[in-house]
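Reading a protein record of the kind used here takes little practice once its layout is understood. The reader may check this reading against the record printed directly beneath this paragraph.
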Amino acid sequence: MSNFEKNLELAINNAKRLSNKILIDGKLTSAKSSNKIEVINPSTCENIGVAPQCDKNDVDEAVESAEKAFQKWKRIPARERGKMVTAGARKLEERRNEIETLLALDTGNALRTQAIPETAASIELTHMFAGLSGEIKGENYPTNIPNSIHYTTRDPIGVVCAIVPWNAPLFLTVAKIAPAIVAGNSVVLKTAEQAPFCALLLAEIFQQELPPGVLNVISGYGEECGEPLITHEKVRKVTFTGSFAVGKIIAKKAAPKLCPVTLELGGKNPNIIMSDADLDIAIQGVIDGMRYTRQGQACTAGSRIYIQEKIYDEVVEGAIDKLSKFKMGNALEESSDIGAIISEEQLKRTLHYMDIAKKTSSAKIMHGGNQPTGDEYKNGFFYEPTLMTGVPVESPVCQEEIFGPVACAIPFKTFDEVMKSANDTPFGLSAVLWTQNLSRALEFVEEIEAGFVQVNQCVAPRANVSYGGLKMSGLGKEYAFDSMINHFTQSKTVLINRGKSNIDN
């Protein structure tokens, strides 16, 4: 049996085992709702299982389980909670092969270039938050009130609603549940209906080290499942990653009960190359930054590639050369650099924007621009990594988040010109500049309207890198210690009058 066959068998068996299951009160169980959501392998369009289409009754059960567990969990010392989460992280390491293969099957993201690194990053992030458990503390303050003590505590909030997307479901699940649980909260996680199994497997493994009810997992659509979860009176915090449109709805639904929300939303990110840049590094950087190996399905994808006129042709040619070397194929094939788009709906979204581009007279497709042909691609949601020139900056292709493998190369003359264009967007998630001019780099950092800024590198967010957007790209930061403190604890101010001492001198 080949490695591909072994990986496929392992992933399919786990998908079958977890099919039609949710996690409530420490146990895999069936949902109260009888409705089901078909889960498709993006590489083949084959059914790999079903996810329960949970409704309000399932939400109520999950929240009640979380609320009951919270009353005990919050009283466990933070370092003890951290030890349990560390033990959970070790179990993830022991079963990482299972997790990696199921992640590739679930999402269509290539095993070697995406699923394996995402699993490793998820384990690292879990260890980081667990190790910071002892740093959850308040502060002492001086006071001018005689015989008075003034200090603050950091207390858990309560039941946390965590909603994750399908593009990086493992890492984003960990980014929400690990800090929430370490901080003393309980969690109800709603998985992405397109890719539910890898998050459920992770939760099942975690559950071996946690008291029942601390972590609960449900699945379903926004209206029937997400909305009653967000609006539930016992849910005290909402953390969401996804589109701006959905994030706006979530904020509105949570507002009547003044429930705090953390929102990591979309972007239309600039990746800027100055003429003095190290082009070998910069060209590879913009290819990496576009996240082609995740089919462009990343909110940080640098899909607006600005290139100074002097080096424009050289950079475009270099990018085409690198794109031509990518191998697209089944996500579970270890030779695949690029996998499949998550769903037919998302593929149609990419085709919609490409149709706009192809009808633009000035636009020119330099690489890609089609669905690949051949037997290995005929049943999956595949689309070639695409680079275009001549697309007007005011075009929807350059203004709206496609969430597909499509990027536009845009020439510019001056730094002031490119900064104006880069900031001319309602989004403000990430931005990258390539230059060897230190003064220019610092000016860029000061002027760019983005929450995640890089110079001469373009790496994905990771453990202990505070990450989040500005403007319509979200509210709050994730992945670092400050996110655990700011989003999953609340400050309590304490004043104590100790009175006069009765002790004789």
